[in-house]
Amino acid sequence: MPQEKKPQPQTPRILATQSICKRLVLVLDSSGSMSSQKNDIIGGVNETIKVQRQSQPSENSTTNFNIVTFSDCVSIPQEHTLESVPFLSDSSYCPSGSTALFDAMGLTMSRYNTESGVIMIVATDGEENSSSKYSYKQRVEMVKNLRENKNWNFIYLSEDIDTFKQGESMGISQSTTNCNNIAVGKYCLGNALKSNECQSAISDMRKGTKNVKIAQTISSLSQQY
After folding, report:
1. Which residues contact 70 (CB under 8 A, 6 or more apart)?
2. What's 30-223's CATH class?
3. pLDDT band, residue 7 (cuts 50/70/90)
4. What is the reported pTM?
């Protein structure tokens, strides 16, 4: 009588994992020139909070959401989750002063550089004119290290070709892994931020999807609303 074959133990399948995002940080220009689109910015940020709360409701109390504003100086972000972060208002967003963009980006990357899967969104309308803390080499190396070793995602929204080139110079290129660099047009930063394309990309990044690209042309992003 043939012996019954014993089932062979199966080798467990090891799935590749990504860094699931537990922090979104918005580096937001609050220099004087942003006054002309203050309401648009407030609306874009608040819509981002609403959409991302709806995207993964079970994660709202455990996903951090920080807003870093900058003009001549850089604000210290308050620690909030998606659940607790307050909406922007006329009193909490008051543009004035010049543009310390590079310091804002450098300080933000330094603050969270031990974390993986961070989504860093930059929204600016003008060229850098007030930073002093980080060299060009330091900024480029920080972006590269966080992209490659910590699975950070960068979304850089700017108004024109000059501010677009600032992003490119730091290694935030549309052709680079985990990067989106988009010139959205004059006075359109808030509308671009709250666009379906941008919000869908942020939602995918939060799930750990690598190299998400915002599937929208520059001109249609700026004209969507």
Report:
1. 27, 28, 29, 30, 31, 99, 100, 101, 103, 104
2. alpha beta
3. very low
4. 0.88
